Model the fold of this input.
Amino acid sequence: MTKIYVWSLFTRLFHILLVIAVGVVFVLAEFENLLSYHAIVGYTIGLLFLFRIIWGFMDVRYSKFKDFNFNLKDLIEYMFGLFGEKKEYMGHNPASSWAIVAMIILGLASVVTGVVVYGTQEGMGLLSFLNISLFKDMDFFEDVHELFSNAFMGVIFIHVAGVVIDKLLHKSKAVESMVDGYKYGDEKSLKLTLLQKLFGVLWIASSIFLLIYLLSNPSNVLVADNNRAVNYKVEHKLFYDECVSCHTLYPPNLLPSSSWVKMMDNETTAQ
Done:
């Protein structure tokens, strides 16, 4: 057997950044006053996963989805083999193949539902405009977010447990290979094209840049409250005086202009 280059620098950096980010995001979730930082790290995780999906279709040996083994029979044999004779895989084994796809799906679902919760219940971020009585008192979105997040962590726990068992029982070099990128076998080494290298740089650099940008600009559209409070009594006195005398003030931006024109025409006709 020869020393084979299996995991590219970009795959390994993604793995390291993801491990750190996931650990941090779950710790931050326990502190209400650090919720904005929780959201920032969550956005970073989302971007890491989005780039990983593209990476999986870029014909990168051992990392592309075509090389994943989703055969259920092979998965069962591999799982039982953890405690006996285990077949070696140069790239992703059946268990890690399923785990990675599950983590991508559950991770992105956690990010998306997190954005929804952050907007509807906290009035912050991209969906801050949904922080209205219809949504902000609902527990549904938060429950769904927690469901996906806990499932995400469950898959991670199983994945890590499998790696530990493999290390203890079979002296596996899986952890070491994710550090230096090498395994021993008889297959071909990974070679990246120029396009793949450029994309890898973009992948890691963009993720780090997003994290730094969001941390250094707390008023950005992804994290801050984007709905400016309007004092209608001061800024739109005529509107305030005419409307609030009869009913609860209804912000004009909540209806399209055509609806207001129609209502005002009806009001004029009625008079």
Remarks:
- DSSP finds eleven helices and two strands in the chain.
- The chain has two domains: 2-216, 232-270.
- Residues 232-270 form one domain.
